[in-house]
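ZP: hey, is the NAP complex queued? I don't see it on the tracker
AM: it wasn't, my bad. submitting now with these inputs:
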Amino acid sequence: MIIWIVGASSGIGAALAKEYASTGYTVYASARSEEKLQALAAESTTLSGDIHALPCDITDNDSVLAAVTQIESNAPIDKAVLSAGFYDPIGLDDIHLEHFTSTYDVNLHGVVRCLLALLPGMRQSNNGQIAIVSSVSGYTGLPRAAAYGSSKAALINLAESLQPECKAVGVDIRLISPGFVKSPLTDKNSFKMPFIIEPEDAARRIVRGLDGNGFEVHFPKRFTLWLKVLRLLPYALYLRLTAKL
Ligand SMILES: NC(=O)c1ccc[n+]([C@@H]2O[C@H](COP(=O)([O-])OP(=O)(O)OC[C@H]3O[C@@H](n4cnc5c(N)ncnc54)[C@H](OP(=O)(O)O)[C@@H]3O)[C@@H](O)[C@H]2O)c1
């Protein structure tokens, strides 16, 4: 089985690459940092599957198309996990247009570039699963995350929107909504992150979830279920709570 993991040079994506390789998958690992990907690929010698370093910048459409073409020249892609993401928490005083455009270029448009590159091959083979890594921060607006949270909210909407039509042509669209996971991305947070888990734990939960039938894989549930309740609150109460964060 062939899997393409985008955002595999660190954090959740790197842990996921090792988890899938340990179950015998052939993993194509993409991100911009070639050195980190090569180091990851070297680790796969002890695993039952292979990890191939496939550098790619998802803000560059040609780079995305070249990566997909390279994998498909060997075999059709069975599964893709689009985990690349950019997070820069800033408050109102530092907010500027470039912060939004650069966040959306990776988190939203980058994912769209990958999706559009993957769909023709998967439609042709009538087979394939594409997992989009969003975030619980896309459930509701949270302080200092206007760009990041809105990019992740857009991914939730995008996945919901594409799922029915894709299912009809044999392509299984899934949504992944992690809570806090220890990684270079969350190392930027200075606040205490409730129920934070290790990337290896996140990877195991993702593999299990994607093997199952549910559209959304969210974890850890002791955190995500509370957030799902939070979004049902009336705004007057919700905004009073988030003002305290
Ligand atoms: N950690 C959490 O608590 C958490 C919670 C909810 C959701 N998420 C989401 O989970 C995903 C993975 O996050 P993480 O925690 O594993 O963070 P991470 O360790 O910072 O990983 C982000 C990955 O994205 C890659 N990337 C960034 N820009 C890219 C680009 N232009 N082209 C290709 N790859 C690019 C990075 O590699 P290069 O820099 O080498 O390109 C890296 O491999 C993200 O989408 C994040 O939003 C994380």
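AM: back. Residues 7-13, 31-33, 36, 56-59, 83-87, 106, 110, 133, 135, 178, 180-181, 183-186 surround NAP (CB under 6 Å).
ZP: great, adding it to the tracker
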